[in-house]
Design goal:
Length: 589
């Protein structure tokens, strides 16, 4: 009993949890407990252990006095999450209003991703990303959960035309730029390739020599040729070195990204400009021409070009012959080659010249038909006096050329166009393309000459004019024009006459002017020269007389008709003396 009385109930009974310890004991125990907890800081990433998983949250212990909750939706990228797994989380708040520790795995991934990106940028390390989608000017690549921009120019060393082929695929890249203000990251795949190509490029350039055969990929196409990537080194394959045949654009025979075999033709000292060839890898088609091909052989081919001077006929790729425009038709009048052939025509021709050493040949197509000048009926068909119709092909100062049929041209002299009109240039009478009727005046088959006349279709009216305009007869004439020597007169029947200046004096002493219509007397008529000389003065002055009416000196019997010019000059002298005598008599008066 005494033992019960000795028991200290105050020490045994406690009023609350931990009150059985002294202050020192409690402090000691608290220090021991806090020693088992981690010192944590908000806004940092820390590793934690999963201690529980329910439908909504994942419970994570980070060694803090309380566990944190993370929405299970932030673990979708993991196939499964279970207690004991270690994960990195971001501490948003140590304790919210409910006293809970707030963690985020999503933010932890972002922070960690940026740390890894900065580390990759600083260390120039290669990282693997997933191409998510294409965008304007390039691709979007996922690296560590951050969307980075891969410009189109940084995808490859060669131009990329289809970005879609990379979407959904993994790609190694390097970080080339970080913009923290916009959370923007730029990456490049090209820099990885360039480094690999540097050694290859140096090796190619060191071993480069003329005649070397290489393999390359067509990188770019232009209308003058293609650029070929030889493995970090670009070379130009000119359009003329692609094929022995004629091509208008490289795309006719080549494609972008196509692998091709080429040969090095030339390069500069710095090896910055490399000329390549493709056709040189095959023998020249001229070397495989048929041995029996010779002048006079008939060949068949396709027109590949038409120029002003002729057309080129391709017998085989790389083998062409020129058909000069003069060899397209027997006509002496040269026309445009396009009148005969066009590009793409498949025609037959005859070999005119052949030089296999210089790889040149000339061809003709008119030789496939008979030369019209050598036809047997030529002499009878175009005999002198026969009448024909033709087309005016050309005009010259002295006449015009008339095409009677293909290959048969004739000349119509300007003097043979009209009996009555004095034509200075044939353009006053006809124009090119007009149809004209003619008669054959002269035929020279050997020299291929044909003289034609238009006026000869009618009788010579000057035979009739000789009786209409006899010397001494008067006619009403109109002055058409005047010059220092005299005036041109318009006579009846469309004829022209001439009056010298001294024969234009009127009765009142004035001169006849252009446009006046007066009586004129025929002073001279020449049927052969088609010339009529007249005088107005002679119509009122008796001393001015026609040549045939003037007083002639006695003609000796032995004198021949050749003295006529002397007689005419004598008559002229008499006219001058008569005028002088009249003036002298007037002076005496």
């Amino acid at each position: 009993m005494s033992n019960k009385e000795d028991f200290n109930w105050e020490n045994f009974e406690t009023k609350g949890f931990g009150e059985g310890y002294s202050k020192d004991q409690r402090d000691q125990m608290a220090a021991m407990y806090e020693g088992t907890l981690n010192e944590i800081t908000e806004k940092e990433v820390i590793k934690g252990t999963v201690v529980g998983v329910n439908d909504k949250d994942v419970i994570i212990n980070i060694g803090f006095k309380s566990d944190g909750l993370v929405p299970i939706s932030e673990f979708r990228d993991l196939e499964s999450i279970k207690p004991g797994d270690e994960v990195e989380v971001f501490i948003e708040e140590q304790e919210n209003a409910l006293g809970q520790l707030i963690l985020s795995r999503k933010k932890a991934k972002i922070v960690k991703a940026w740390q890894d990106i900065e580390s990759a940028f600083e260390n120039d390390s290669v990282i693997e990303g997933l191409v998510k989608r294409r965008t304007k000017g390039g691709l979007i690549v996922d690296i560590y959960g951050v969307e980075a921009f891969l410009p189109g120019s940084q995808i490859d060393v060669k131009p990329i035309r289809d970005f879609d082929i990379y979407v959904g695929k993994k790609m190694e890249v390097k970080v080339v730029k970080i913009n923290h203000a916009n959370d923007n990251v730029v990456v490049s795949h090209k820099v990885l390739i360039e480094k690999d190509l540097e050694k290859q490029k140096a090796e190619i350039l060191n071993n480069l020599e003329k005649g070397q055969v290489l393999e390359g990929v067509i990188k770019n196409m232009t209308n003058f040729g293609v650029f070929i990537d030889l493995g970090g080194v670009d070379g130009l394959l000119h359009i003329t070195d692609i094929s022995w045949g004629r091509i208008n654009h490289p795309e006719e025979v080549l494609e972008l990204d196509q692998k091709v075999q080429i040969v090095v033709l030339d390069f500069d000292e710095d090896k910055k400009r490399i000329s390549l060839g493709m056709k040189q890898l095959t023998s020249h088609p001229w070397d495989s021409l048929a041995s029996n091909l010779e002048v006079g052989s008939k060949v068949q081919g396709k027109i590949v070009n038409v120029a002003d001077y002729g057309a080129f006929l391709e017998l085989a790729p790389g083998v062409e012959g020129l058909i000069h425009v003069s060899e397209m038709s027997w006509s002496q009048h040269l026309r445009n080659p396009a009148d005969f052939v066009k590009v793409g025509d498949e025609i037959e021709a005859v070999v005119l010249t052949l030089d296999k050493d210089d790889r040149k040949m000339s061809l003709g197509i008119k030789q496939l038909t008979e030369d019209p000048w050598t036809k047997g009926d030529m002499s009878t068909k175009y005999a002198v006096g026969t009448k024909h119709k033709g087309v005016v092909r050309n005009l010259t100062n002295f006449g015009l050329f008339l095409e009677l049929e293909e290959g048969i041209d004739g000349l119509v002299h300007v003097s043979d166009l009209s009996w009555t009109k004095k034509i200075k240039h044939p353009s006053e009478f006809v124009k090119v393309g007009d149809e004209l009727e003619v008669a054959v005046l002269e035929l020279d088959v050997d020299n291929r000459r044909l003289a034609l006349g238009h006026k000869q279709l009618e009788e010579n009216p000057w035979d009739t004019f000789e009786t209409v305009f006899p010397i001494g007869s008067d006619h009403k004439c109109t002055v058409v024009s005047k010059n220092d020597k005299g005036a041109v007169l318009e006579l009846p029947y469309g004829l022209e006459g001439f009056a010298t200046s001294k024969n234009l004096e009127k009765a009142d002493g004035s001169q006849v002017e252009v446009g006046e219509s007066l009586d004129f007397k025929v002073m001279e008529f020449s049927k052969d020269d088609k010339r009529i000389v007249l005088s107005h003065t002679a119509t009122f002055r008796e001393d001015v007389k026609p040549a045939a009416a003037a007083k002639k000196p006695a003609k000796k019997k032995e004198e021949s008709s050749e003295s006529t010019p002397a007689e005419k000059s004598t008559l002229g002298d008499l006219d001058a003396l008569a005028e002088l005598k009249e003036k002298m008599e007037g002076g005496k008066k």
